[in-house]
Amino acid sequence: MTFHRFFAHSSIVAAVMAALMVLTTATAHARGLLRDSDAEYALQQIAAPVLRAAGLSPTRVKVLIVNDSGLNAFVVGDDAIFINYGLINKMQRADMLQGVIAHESAHIVNGHITRRLSNLGNSRTIAGLGIALAIATAVAGSSDGAVGIALGSQSLAQRIFFKHTRAEEASADQSGVRFLRRAGISSKGMLDVFEIFRGQELLAETRQDPYTRSHPLSRDRIRSLEGFVATDKGPVESDADYWFARLKGKITAYTRAPKWTLRRIGETGYKDVALLREAVAYHRNSNTKKALKAIDGAIALRPKDPFLRDQRGQILIETRNFDAAKNAYARAVNLAPRNSLLLAGYGRALLASGNISKAKSVLEKSRRIDFRDGSMLRDLAMAYAKSKQPGMAALTTAERYALLGRMADAKIHSKRAVGILPRGSGPWQRAQDVLIASERATKKRK
């Protein structure tokens, strides 16, 4: 599991243009994403029936984990739902998480975000990196930094972008319940999430959880949902419980102290999840021998699971056993050849083991599938540099800095790329786009 910044765009250009709004200081205040192939696959399995019931594509709408212990979930566009790991850790069952996903999906389907963003021009640009960073900061309660730069004030961010009205919340509740019923999922999970926040509307806003501030709760909403639950037919059987146990088990293993995890190894009820958690805890305690023994035990139980092999590769590469890491990632990629995060890990291992040509090819494939991985872009730039392609190295570095909101650095590297790459080529045009955006950003800052 690795920590990255928000990269929620359809293209590098959209990300760069959104970065104009946040400028360099946004990065210091922004919340990051927890990018992990295992956790994201588990989320996809949990979310897919809800998204399909809402008429959304599970392959297009991503559910991403925010590196924040606060209790919150939000949308800022039509292609991603953001959920804080703190809220996931607070939940006890899969249907609770599915209730949150159904509610946030309803905000997308009902156009609650799109209508607001359309008032500011290009909604796909506005709904990208800059707004995601600004909203994450505002939700956390910060009144300066990214929010002040991107939107003028925290109150404006809350009022226009992420603070839903009670009418919108009631509408999202009704639509969300409808999606859950279509998917055969009990709406009791959604009600139990509401119970977590019951009574917070009576607290001063500064003492409320971020979810309550962005999703105003009322007794009427809870009573209405209780009525829906009373008429539920009951859930259908699914494997969501397993994937929830794996998701929460993985997140807690990385976000709680290793001692805490080792004391609770078997509480999920799944042997492979217990071994996975044990592997993470021992790895974080620098006990590589026990970590590998545990992850190998999990792999023996699920030999065709690519994400367990990804975890093995991560343990090995972080202990500088590069050749073994390369083999672990190669097996993972063989099982899931289109997973961008697995490809990024394989490329990193190849690069570390000295196979520059193959590393570059694998990392390029990862980028084509999903460019929103800063570590992958860093490794790809290094592969280009080692392959004596300074123009491409400069371009990739410029794009990485643009995604981070470091526009002054992006300007330096994009200008260099424009001077080296063949004029009019695709890479040259990408560099030109970053250069134009970075020049506007640095000019606006002066």
Structure description:
The chain is mostly helical and 446 residues long. It has helices at 12-22, 25-29, 37-53, 85-90, 94-109, 114-118, 123-126, 129-139, 146-151, 154-162, 166-182, 188-197, 210-214, 219-230, 240-255, 258-263, 271-284, 288-301, 306-318, 322-335, 340-353, 356-369, 374-386, 390-403, 407-420, 426-445; strands at 2-5, 32-35, 62-66, 73-75, 80-84. It has a domain at 2-230. It has 26 helices and five strands. The chain has a five-stranded mixed sheet. The longest helix is centred in the C-terminal third of the chain and has 20 residues, at 426-445. It is globular, with a radius of gyration of 22 Å. The two termini are 38 Å apart.
Name the poorly predicted regions.
3-30, 118-162, 202-206
SSE class: mainly alpha
Query: Which bin fits the share of residues in helices?
Result: 55-70%
Terminal CA distance reads: 38 Å
Order of strands across the main sheet = 1-2-3-5-4
Task: Give the radius of gyration.
Answer: 22 Å
Beta content:
under 5%
Estimate the mean pLDDT confidence.
Answer: 80
SS elements, strand count: 5
> What is the overall shape?
globular
| Number of contiguous helices | 26
